[in-house]
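New to this. Look over this protein:
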Amino acid sequence: MGRNYLIAALALGAGVILSAPAHADTRAGVDAWTKGDYAGAVKEWQAQAAKGDADALFNLGQAYKLGKGVKQDLIKAEQLFAQAAAMGHLQAGDNYGLLLFQRGDRQRGLPYIRAAADRGDPRAQYLLGVMHFNGELVPKDWVRAYALVTLAQQQGLPQAAGAMAQMDQHIPYEQRQQGVQLAAELASQADATRARQLAAVDLGSQVPGPVPAPVRGPTVASAQGAAQSAQGAFPVLTRPNDSAEDTRIRQAGASPVRVHQGPAPGVTPPAPRPVAAQPPRPAPPPAPAPMPAAGGSWRIQLGAFGVAANADALWARVKGRPELAGHPRLNVKAGAVTKLQAGNYSQAGAQAACARLKAAGFTCVAVPG
């Protein structure tokens, strides 16, 4: 094909049912839901949704999306999310955009994906990163693509790790470094945006957002998109020079066919010849203890976080790995962002450590001290 490409079809997670809605009936629905009385919750929310309560519309959309208390209906869920999003409900806007994207209406879904990514939603960051990598609907920008997928990975989105590993094969090292720096800036901006918008909601102000377009009725394309979302399909990186057939096979998850190496059917293999017993060999001498890592001015950067506790959580996961043995932790402040680094590497040592950490699913970039 001659170019890199990520084919996107993202499945929605279980989502969040609001725990403190404004109206008593909507709260009663939440209480019923948490007790497993899904039909009772739906009944409460239907009454408030008919009156235009955004929380009830969102919660009812969740019920239709998950198929709890009602028959699963993603088109109905999309309609309910669209109504709530038009009233400034942030989570409804996020889910509405993702549903549009899943069923192939990416042009209408893009404004919601952007808004959700600006608030730090990892699903939206992942999809927007994919689009920037492809240059589809948005300008091709590998630095921004790497930054967005880095943020999605840092928040634990499983598919981001695989995309990062493949992006590492195609995005030049300098651009990846720039992407890590940009990720720190975007994380800080997302924290500020989210805090500002949530404060506006708490004060009763409507948060401006994209205006939902009319929801279309079910079509063959939307049904296929719904099926993809139910199966949990995610983007697949198309490597340079892939043929269309190569890409189709990899998306389908086909495994390579292994050739049978044994004798042909119906042929009796010859009996093995007896082998004379060999005298036992002396045990090899113990391997020498590894030399301490040579010091240097290079560092490895494991992530950039707007919340310092997230840096602590990541360090707790990686500090026991051999790549970090003997290397001190460094918390580097950059405005409101904490860069988690480890120091005292040579350039070659930092690059080698990052290669092994990336193979284990971690984000890592070697940076000069």
Remarks:
- Residues 298-368 form a domain with the Alpha-Beta Plaits fold (CATH 3.30.70.1070).
- The first strand starts at residue 5 and ends at 7.
- The two ends are 40 Å apart (CA to CA).
